[in-house]
C-alpha cells in the first residue's frame, strides 16, 4: 500500500471512531434517526394524505414528503406564479417538468381563500375519469387533459412536496404547486 493510501485509511479510521459522538446530537437515545428533520405542517400532511388516498385507489405505493422539493415549490410559487397571478392567468390546471421534477399547478379564482389542499388535489384527481386505462389514452374534451392526475398516481414517483398561496389584487386567487420526484408522465408509459 502506498504511503498516500495508508494515510487515507488512517483518516477514515479516525472518522469512523469519531462518528458515534459526532452524530449523537441528531439521533434519539433509542438510536432512531430523528435527525433534526423539519416537522410537517398540517396543510402539508393534508396534501400528502390526499395524494396517498388517490394512489391507494389506483393501487400504487404511497409518496413521502421531501423538503428539498419544497424549496423548489417555494421558489416556483413566489417567483413564477405570484407574477402571473395578477397578469397572465394560467390554465386552471397544468403539468410540467424541468427534467428533474414533475410539477402540478393549480389556480383557483373562485374567491375561496380557504381552498384546502384536499380540494386542490381533488381537482387534479377528478381528471382521472378521462383516463381510458385499457387503451392508455386520454378521453378529455378539447383543451383539457389528465396529465395532473397521471402525475399524482404515477407509480415510479416516490416523493412529493406542495405549497399553496393566496395572491391577486384582493388575495382571492389561490395558486398551488406540487413537485414530484422522480418526475412522472414519461411519454409512452402507463401511469400504473
Ligand atoms: C425513539 O425516541 C423517539 C424520540 O424520543 C420517539 O419518538 C420514538 O418513538 C422512539 N422509537 C422507538 C422505536 O422507541
Ligand atoms: C428529494 O428530492 C431530491 C430532488 O430534488 C432528490 O435529489 C433527493 O434525493 C430526495 N431526497 C430523498 C431523501 O430521497
Ligand atoms: C377578487 O376580489 C375583487 C375585489 O373584491 C373582485 O373585483 C374580483 O372580481 C375578485 N376576483 C375573483 C376571481 O373572485
Order of helices and strands: HHEHEEHEEHEE
- What is the structural class? alpha+beta
Strand content: 15-25%
Biggest sheet, in brief? Answer: 5 strands, mixed
Our measurement of the CA-to-CA distance between the termini, rounded to an integer number of angstroms, reads: 52 Å
Report the CATH superfamily.
CAP
Count of alpha/pi helices: 5
Describe the structure.
The chain has 192 residues and is an alpha+beta fold. It has a single domain (42-181), classed as CAP (Pathogenesis-related Protein p14a). 39% of the residues lie in helices and 19% in strands. It is built from 5 helices and 7 strands. It has helices at 3-24, 42-58, 67-86, 117-125, 147-153, and strands at 64-65, 93-97, 102-108, 131-132, 137-138, 159-167, 173-181. It has a 5-stranded mixed beta sheet with strand order 1-6-7-3-2, sandwiched between helices. The protein has a two-stranded antiparallel sheet with strand order 4-5. The longest helix has 22 residues, at 3-24. It is globular. The structure holds 2-acetamido-2-deoxy-beta-D-glucopyranose (NAG) (3 copies). One 2-acetamido-2-deoxy-beta-D-glucopyranose binds next to helix 3.
